[in-house]
Design goal:
The complex is a heterodimer of chains A (478) and B (41). With 478 residues, chain A is mainly alpha-helical. Helix content of chain A is 79%, strand content 0%. Chains A and B meet through helix 3, helix 4, helix 8, helix 9 and helix 12 of A and helix 1 of B.
Chain lengths: 478, 41
């Protein structure tokens, strides 16, 4: 895009309006979040509709809106389908959410589960992976915020990134998980409605058959049924998605927050809602060759196509979509990571005797601290969106098996779980560096699986599930 | 090189758009139902 698609004045007005709405809602809903349970797990009685909406909104990140078109443009149909396999994480987590709620009715974080289930060494490894991943995810979105506002409206990178981070910190700080879940519903609805409108506009402008014909003629590799790198990307993305959802406290906090009997249905419905989004967003990328658009930067293909088809209106629509997808994920990460730091580091290490009222206050300070650290890391653009995102793939892939086996298999060996996370991460990172980004999660998950199953077979443990249901606040449980 | 057919490609895109549109309507409907029954949260 050589010139900005939105007038800077329009963009500032949109940014200002959305910021005021989100922060006001955060303050209003914050009245319900005075207790620790209210702030961290929204009172543990969230219904089906808001539960599904928050899951789908959180999982639609700026990466979904920007990276799905990029993958489609670079890896064709398989790239587009590969991204949509991340929805399997939501489908497969659905039964796990129900089990987590049953096993830990008073739980707060995924870290607590690992500590109670496997002990402190595995807990330390898990926290390292989880905090690194959460920070990576947030930095990638903070950077996306700055890059996108600059590309669409000419707002300097540092201003756009700072404003979006600041707004998310404010309403998460005031409203906790209540504010996150409430705003997630509005954001998910705007995203789904917006992306459907955008896709219809493209089809009206350029029929799907025409898009297919142009690709077949000019870039047939994008339609290749046997595209080796894309097929690897498919499995890598599937496993990356599973790892992200299974281990991260963003999803565990929702499992704890949803009312009894709601989690399974809400996560499954969220998977259905999420499944088509990368395909529709990917279609923007595939439409670029048919529209004869010259894309200077692959990760900006979505906005470029939207602006080309709908002019300023399309650019504004995409601006809203990306703003919502950014806010819905950043707020969730802020809240869930703050819970993880407060419950697993502050309470376990720094202030074991802290009361719930004190922890509620600490959680607010942690939200601010995470926001500041993210801002500092976003200050300089570290790398491209894809590189930042996929670097964490091997780490989260290595956590899949310790989580699944730990939830369903009482014989799983704590030492095996620890080794699986450490060696799985190391081998996955080696593959990431030596083979390519598309192989990291695949190798990390495979190595982790072999170690968990092998260690359990060699030295089976016998875990008493009732330990998870007890008081999850005391360090003595470890 | 074996290519994805026009039919498959078109079906994929139309199915995805239809599913997203239905999801949008259902999500709004479920929220209205939960508000009426007092079980939003």
């Amino acid at each position: 895009m050589t010139t900005t698609a939105i007038e800077p004045t329009t963009a500032w007005l949109l940014l200002g309006a959305f910021s005021v709405v989100w922060v006001t809602l955060g303050v209003l809903w914050g009245r319900k979040a005075r207790s620790l349970d209210g702030y961290m797990v929204a009172g543990r009685n969230v219904g089906f509709a808001l539960g599904a909406a928050t899951c789908v909104a959180t999982w639609i990140t700026s990466n979904t809106m920007l990276l799905a078109p990029q993958l489609a443009l670079e890896m064709g149909v398989w790239g587009m389908l590969a991204y949509s396999t991340a929805s399997f994480g939501l489908f497969l987590f659905a039964p796990m959410a129900a089990r987590i709620r049953d096993l830990m009715p008073n739980g707060y974080t995924s870290g607590e589960f690992i500590r109670l289930r496997y002990g402190k060494p595995a807990w330390a490894a898990f926290l390292t992976i989880s905090l690194f991943y959460s920070l990576t995810w947030m930095v990638s979105m903070g950077m996306a915020a700055g890059i996108l506002l600059e590309a669409l409206a000419g707002i300097p990178y540092i201003y756009g990134m700072s404003i979006i981070l600041c707004v998310c910190v404010l309403y998460t700080l005031f409203g906790g998980l209540f504010a996150v879940i409430g705003t997630d519903f509005i954001q998910s609805w705007l995203i789904l409605a917006g992306i459907v409108c955008l896709a219809i506009a493209i089809i009206v402008h350029t029929p799907v058959r025409e898009v297919h014909a142009t690709i077949a003629e000019n870039r047939p590799a994008l339609l290749n049924v046997f595209f080796p790198a894309a097929l690897m990307a498919l499995f890598n993305n599937l496993l990356f998605g599973l790892g992200e959802i299974f281990h991260n406290n963003v999803w565990w906090s929702r499992a704890f927050a949803l009312g009894k009997g709601v989690g399974r249905r809400a996560f499954a419905f969220a998977g259905l809602l999420w499944l088509p989004v990368p395909i529709v967003a990917g279609f923007l990328g595939l439409a670029a060759p048919a529209l004869d658009i010259n894309v200077a930067s692959a990760d900006m293909v979505g906005p470029v196509v939207a602006a080309h088809i709908l002019g300023t209106g399309g650019a504004i629509l995409l601006f809203v979509l990306v703003f919502c997808s950014l806010a819905s994920s950043i707020d969730s990460l802020l809240a869930a990571t703050s819970d993880l730091v407060t419950k697993d580091i502050v309470q376990q290490v720094l202030a074991p005797s802290a009361t719930n009222e004190q922890l509620r206050r600490y959680a607010g300070w942690v939200v601010i601290g995470i926001g500041v650290v993210t801002w500092a890391l976003c200050f300089r653009r570290i790398s491209t969106l894809a590189q930042v995102l996929f670097f964490a793939g091997p780490l989260v892939g290595s956590a899949i098996w310790p989580i699944i086996a730990g939830l369903y298999w009482n014989k799983t060996n704590p030492t095996g779980a620890l080794l699986a996370m450490v060696l799985g991460s190391a081998s996955g990172l080696f593959a990431y560096l030596e083979i390519g980004w598309y192989s990291g999660a695949l190798v990390g998950t495979a190595v982790s699986m072999v170690i968990v199953i092998g260690a359990t077979w060699l030295a089976p443990a016998s875990f008493d599930w009732r330990r998870l249901a007890g008081d999850t606040t005391g360090a003595s449980n470890a | 090189m074996t290519l994805f057919s026009t039919g498959f490609f078109t079906a994929c895109i139309y199915a995805a758009i239809t599913l997203a549109a239905i999801g949008c309507v259902l999500l709004a409907a479920f929220v209205i139902r939960d508000v009426r029954k007092g079980r939003l949260w």
